[in-house]
Design brief:
single chain; 0% strand; mainly alpha; 322 residues; 13 helices
Length: 322
């Protein structure tokens, strides 16, 4: 994305076509589906009322922050609600693009949040256990492949992406394989196999799609609203910290477990930190993170529509008063 931004500002006319972008969305949907494991299902069923309550409150607060940014922060339309969504950064960017939001600002906000959340979680883990989480595991770019699982995953991406694209549902190329794959993967009927080189290519396509439409004016606007964006991110992190305290008191889980479970996004970095921290209940953390990850994707469109109506109503009333 950074390379695309530099090229876009320099006036490059190249763009990522619709078909490669749809293919990247389908692979991203399969990646999300792969997070819904049988272990997650067991942990979710054990504490599902608690998980849903925590996730829904977090989504509500992030949506209110997005509404405030839309009304007072100089962000157009539904950009604020997509940008403040607490997780699924790549999916939020894809869906914001499909729903006509300013995808450049959404990407800027989402990846600013990812950085801040990862730094905060690392700092809390370091202070709590006296040493940081274990080192980030080395990426194996070309691991031994389970060819039947890879073939099944690619078939899911191709068929699901095609059905989703033909359905004309916004982000259907991502949502259809995501929902079908989540059911199949959670029930053990299929294994999602996505090697790192394939995911890297997917992220690159999405990053180029966003970055290449940046202009100097868009970058200057992002710099102007950065203080409001950082304030909203810090407010969300602080709220989730308070929620973690209440969660630890209510169900008796380890405070670090509660903090990592409620941390607003960065599922992969939270998983690494949790794995390297002693006494952390890993299934609890990953189940709550995964529930929020999936609900954020599903709740994004109705929340964006609600914010759009609220902003439009505010604009109409302001115009009438003038």
């Amino acid at each position: 994305m950074a390379a695309g931004i530099l090229a876009g500002i320099a006036g490059a006319g190249v763009r990522v076509g619709r078909k490669p972008y749809a293919a990247a969305q389908a692979v991203l949907g399969c990646m999300i589906a792969g997070t819904v494991t049988p272990t997650f299902a067991t942990a979710f069923l054990r504490d599902w009322p608690l998980f849903l309550a925590v996730v829904l409150v977090t989504i509500l607060v992030s949506s209110l922050l997005g509404l405030l940014l839309a009304l007072r922060g100089g962000l157009p339309g539904t950009t604020g609600v997509w940008g403040t969504s607490p997780g699924a950064a790549a999916a939020m960017v894809v869906m914001a693009d499909a729903y006509g939001a300013d995808v450049r600002m959404v990407a800027f906000m989402q990846y600013s949040r990812v950085i801040c959340v990862a730094l905060a979680a690392s700092l809390v883990a370091h202070l709590w256990v006296g040493s940081g989480a274990s080192a980030v595991p080395e990426t194996v770019w070309f691991p031994p492949l389970r060819l039947p699982a890879l073939a099944g995953t690619l078939a899911l991406a191709a068929v699901g992406g095609l059905v989703g694209a033909l359905s004309r549902i916004p982000s259907g190329a991502m949502l259809t394989p995501m929902l079908a794959g989540a059911i199949l993967h959670a029930t053990g009927l299929m294994t999602i196999e996505l090697p790192e080189w394939l995911l890297a290519g997917t992220y690159a396509l999405i990053g180029w799609r966003i970055g290449l439409v940046f202009t100097g004016e868009a970058l200057r606007h992002a710099a102007q609203v950065l203080p409001q964006i950082l304030l909203s991110i810090l407010a969300l992190i602080a709220f989730c910290g308070g929620l973690a305290f209440l969660l630890a008191q209510a169900v008796g889980v380890d405070p670090l477990t509660a903090y990592l479970a409620t941390s607003p996004g960065g599922l992969d970095s939270v998983a690494i930190i949790a794995a390297g921290s002693p006494n952390v209940d890993m299934p609890f953390v990953m189940a709550l993170q995964t529930v929020r990850f999936c609900l954020v994707v599903l709740a994004g469109p109705p929340l964006a529509r609600a914010v759009a109506r609220r902003v439009a109503g505010r604009n109409r009333s302001t115009g009438e008063s003038k």
